[in-house]
Each structure stands twice: as structure tokens, then as C-alpha cells.
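Exam review. A common question shows you a sequence with its C-alpha cells and asks you to describe the fold in words. Practice with the pair below. Do the first one on your own.
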Amino acid sequence: MRLMLISSLAALLSGIFLMTLIESEPGYILIAFGRYTIESSVWFASVALVFLLIFFYLVLRLLRKLILSHDNLKVWLESRGSKRSAELMNNGIINWIEGNWEKSRDFFLKSAKHSEAPLLNYLMAARASHKLAENEQVFEYLQAAEKSDGNAGVAIELTQAEMRLEVEQYEQALATLVRARRNAERHPYVLELLCKAYLGVKDWNSLLKLVEEVKKYKIFSPKKLNDLERSIYKGVLQLRLDGNNPIKELNSRWGKVPVNIRSEIPIIRQYIILLIKNSAYAHAEDLLLSTLRKDWDASLLRLLCFIEGGDLGRRFKILKVWLREKENDGDLLFCLGKLATNLERFDEAREFFIKSLSINPSLDVFMELGNLSALLGELEESVDYFTKGAKIGEKINRGLTLL
């Protein structure tokens, strides 16, 4: 309280002293510029100068605040836009997973408006439109994606190729992928899609060349690579045989099949079928019998029934020896029945067929028994077998229809 009183008294005395000084020594200032002059006392000019400095200081503070607030507003708006874009993108992905293609497309497009890098949004919108069969929109969104990022050409072409492969437009997909194949090392996925496209058009020779690159970049797992090679060599074997010696050409193709694939039953079966179709019966029989001794397979065994000529008696004896170890094998009994019929050993044939029927009742066995009964003049039994076989055929067809 005492300090406050002293301060007030000092301020009062200072004010009185200053006022006395101003009245006794007002001073004089003259400012002239051009035809204009300004006259003032020193004290008034000093006060005016102080107020002018304060004014400029306040103006500068205000400008600084406006600039900072503008930057903050810009940052806030950008962060808000990014957050909005992420939310819309998230909703688009959720609807995509749920199969709501139309909603998904709309969310991706809205997200693109708020995104600084809308490439992914347009690519996903194109995929959604593809699901909706909106071909014009697909093209439009792919163009928008290309405009948004000039370096994304390969990604856009891969997206386009994937969509075409999905609807089995293999030739169009192939054309796109050939363009996209610029650097296999940087874009190995192009090779994977190329494999699908070549498989679709059954271009086995191109696949044979491509598979070496596939191995180099280790695109597929060992199992998937083996499946691919199996399909390729199976397709190569099925290519049309031209020339004067088709068997020689077929054997040459077989020799080029890798050993690990050549030992697989589906490939061996395909080769044997082609040998039979080209009347190389002896070669087909030798390969069949030697393979069955190592790897028993019903699909191979039944091919013996389609081999014409040769020593049927020898073949019949070999199968009867095998029957000692496989007396309950319905396929072996069926083949023995077919061979016995061809050898005109009809009683044995009937016995084999009936035993096969008791183990594995099938349409083939009923048809063979029907034919055998008709051959022997047993028409009533023949009709009965054919009728039962027809019923089994109906069941098979009904099952396939349900699938």
C-alpha cells in the first residue's frame, strides 16, 4: 500500500514536471517536401512518432497472424481431406469384399476427389465397374488412373489384363500383356498372367519358351510349376502330327518331356492314347504293361481294351496272373471280360463281367453284358442288362446336372 502511494506520487510529480517542461520549452520542428510544409512542436512530433511506430507494429503483428492462420487452415483442410479420403477408401474396400460393386465404385470415386494420389482409387473403381459389366466406365476410369500417374502404365495394363482373363478374353489379355512385358525382372507378375493367357489360347510352344523365365524369377511354387509343366507337355503331345511319319514325331516329342514329368501317370496315359490313335499298338501295349507292373492304375488298365491286334492270348494270360493278387479289382475283371469276349471265350467273359458287376456296378459292365447276351441269343437277358445300365446312366446324368 505504501509502495503504491509512493509510485502514484512519483508519477504525479513526473507528470507535473513534464507539463512544465513542455510549456516552458515546446521546441520546434519544420518538415518541408515540395510545396508542402509541416510545422509542429518537438513534443507533439515525438508523441505522434511513438503512436505511428505502435501502429506499424500492430499492423505487422496482424499480418503475421493472418499468414500463420492461413497456413494452419491449409494444413487443417488438407488433413481433413486426407482423413475423408481414407474413410471413403476404407468403405470402398469393405463393400468390395462384400460384393456390393456399385457402392464400392461410388466410394472409390468419392475418395479419389479428396486424394492427392488417386491412382489406386481409379483402378479399384474400374474393377468394380468391370464386375457390373460397365465397359465404357472401365475404360474411363483406367484413363483417369493413367492421367493421375504417368508412371503407372504397367499397373494399369496389368489391371486391364486381369479383368480380361477373368472373363476368359484370352486373346485380348495376351495383347495387353505383350505390351506390358517391358522388364520381367521388375514386373514378374506379367509372366504369371502371360502363363494364364497362353494356357487359355493353348499356345503350348510359347509356354515352353516362357517357362524358362518363370523358373528364373521363381514366380511359382515347386508344385504349381510342376502342374504348369505337366499341362504344357500334355498339350505339346496333343499338337497335330504332320509329316509322313507321325509316330516318329510323337516319339520325338515324348523324348523332350522331362524325366520327372514323363514318369507321371496322366502324361503316360496321354502318350499311350496317342499311340493307340496312331495305330502304334505294340508300343502302346509294352508301355502299358511295364507301367502297370510298377504303378497300378485303373485308367491305364482300361486302355488295354482299346488295343487292337497283337497277341490277345498273351495279354489275357498276363492279366489272369495279375488277378491272383488282385482278385477283387473290378477294373481288372472288366478288362479280362473284354479280352475273353474278343477271344470268343464267352462263358469266361460272362463270369468276369458278373464278378466285376458285383464289385463295381457300372454302366460299362451292364452294356458289355447286354451285348454278350445278345450275341449269345439271350435277348431277354440282354434287354434286362441294357435297362439296368440305362438306369445307372440316368443317375450319372442327374448327378452331373446337380453339379
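Now try the second one, then compare your answer with the model answer below.
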Amino acid sequence: MNNESLNISIMGRDFSIAYPDDEREEILLAATYLDKKIQEIRVEGKVFDSERIALIAGLRIAHELLILRDETGFDINEFRRRIVSLKKKVDEALAYEEN
């Protein structure tokens, strides 16, 4: 499995994310979905700090997934593995952007 680089934009910031070649579409969908949730929170106008907006968006998405798990018998262990993987990719992108 080869790793490739993908450029995404979240909160008006550009990030370069390394990803396994078979996860490209999922990463693009996840980035688009996260950015949409962030924009919804910004439009509400109750939160202004970017870090808090990102945290609230993440919590809302996690809540949606937990509801789906309860309704569909969602595999929580697979969910945890995917979250750890995505967190690692985001951390790597943030570290890359800081350098």
C-alpha cells in the first residue's frame, strides 16, 4: 500500500495529508463533511474561537456516529481504529503546517 499526499482545506486553511492510496475518497469526504460542520457552527455565531469551533464540530460528528452505532450495530472497535488513524493524519498535517 502506497502513501500519497492530498491537499485539503478546512476552516480556510490548507493542509497536506498523507494517506494510503485506497482511502483517498474517504479522506476527501471526511474533510468536506468536517468543514461543512464547522461552517454551520460559524453561521450560528455563538462561538468565535477557531479551536472551540473545531472541537464542537468534532463532538457533533462523534455524536452522530454514536447514534448510528446504536441504530445499526456499529462496530465501535473499528470506529476507534479509524478515529485514531484520522487523528494521527490531522496531527501530522498540523505539524507539517507549523514547520
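Model answer, second protein: The two ends are 27 Å apart (CA to CA). DSSP finds three helices and two strands in the chain. Full marks require stating both points clearly.
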